[in-house]
């Protein structure tokens, strides 16, 4: 229990809920490929890997992604993160337009994106609130 309490000071139920949401998003990502026996939609997985990189390299971590604080490098990091998130939506749409994937796979990929996005937004909001902290 002490190990879980140390993760950003979040309540263990919040950590479990976020882990469940992340697992559902990842499962949907894989199901979008496996159900239609076409692994082209896994290209969005590359965008999910690239998504946090600008904030890791240029962002400071003191301010969240929703704050207006920060300098030019943090603004550039937020822009590149937004660009990558739009790419996560655009890749399945482009693949569908090129008839490389079916409409069902595209919609499952969209749902997976929004579940993973909700996970990140909830984590960002909850980690900034003091209500969930034990300290």
Automatic annotation (TrEMBL):
Highest taxon above the source species: Eukaryota
Pfam families listed in its UniProt record: Vps55
GO BP annotation list: late endosome to vacuole transport via multivesicular body sorting pathway
Record's GO cellular component terms: endosome; membrane
InterPro entries, alphabetized: Vps55/LEPROT
Topology with respect to the bilayer: Multi-pass membrane protein
Cellular compartments annotated: Membrane
Transmembrane segments: 12-32, 39-59, 79-95, 107-126
Keywords recorded for this protein, A-Z: Membrane, Transmembrane, Transmembrane helix
Family: Belongs to the OB-RGRP/VPS55 family.
PANTHER family with a match to the protein in the record: LEPTIN RECEPTOR-RELATED (PTHR12050), RH04491P (PTHR12050:SF0)
Protein name: Vacuolar protein sorting 55
Species annotation: Physcomitrium patens
Encoding gene per record: LOC112283188
């Amino acid at each position: 229990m002490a190990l879980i309490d140390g993760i950003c000071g979040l309540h263990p139920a919040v950590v479990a809920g976020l882990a469940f949401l992340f697992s559902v998003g990842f499962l949907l990502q894989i199901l979008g490929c496996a159900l239609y026996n076409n692994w082209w939609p896994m290209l969005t997985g590359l965008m999910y890997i690239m998504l946090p990189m600008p904030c890791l390299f240029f962002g400071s971590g003191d301010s969240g992604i929703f704050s207006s604080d920060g300098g030019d490098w943090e603004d550039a990091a937020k822009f590149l993160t937004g660009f990558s998130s739009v790419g996560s939506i655009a890749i399945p749409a482009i693949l569908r337009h090129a008839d490389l994937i079916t409409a069902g796979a595209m919609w499952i990929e969209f749902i997976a994106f929004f579940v993973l996005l909700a996970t990140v937004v909830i984590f960002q909001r909850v980690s900034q609130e003091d209500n969930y902290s034990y300290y």
